[in-house]
């Protein structure tokens, strides 16, 4: 390769790279602030000990990656603010959250729902159904 073509290719690659990094700085911050606060609520109550996100976490409760598709925001908020008693022995309440915490958590679930997961979590099989 001649030195001149090498110089041109280098200049173009550098220009392209500079343009890409400039563009990425122009994009809005991808995680809304409320969702970040909701993630903090998720951590504070250690929800991961019983629920998975993206398949990672506890298996006591359901995988909640796309829970917002299954329940409305209002249903979820009511569930968190006035929690039911829990399986398996129904002796303990599901963690109780304030209205504010519940709303932030729902924003976190809405954000999670936008992340493409190729159909994860899979639908639960009925007992007796073949794999
Ligand atoms: C000690 C285990 C445990 C912890 C901790 C826990 N959960 Fe649960 N969760 C369950 C179980 C079990 C259920 C199934 C409902 C039932 O039988 O009471 C459930 C149900 C749910 C549901 C309803 C799911 C559906 O399909 O409708 C949501 C939403 C949920 N939990 C969110 C959370 C969040 C958010 C936290 C943290 C604030 C949390 N859970 C903490 C065990 C837990």
UniProtKB/TrEMBL annotation:
UniProt entry tagged with the keyword Signal: yes
Keywords: Heme, Iron, Metal-binding, Signal
Cytochrome c domain sequence ranges: 33-113
One Pfam family hit: Cytochrom_C
Residues of the signal peptide: 1-18
Molecular function (Gene Ontology), one example: electron transfer activity
Keyword Heme (UniProt): yes
PROSITE patterns assigned: CYTC
Protein name as catalogued: C-type cytochrome
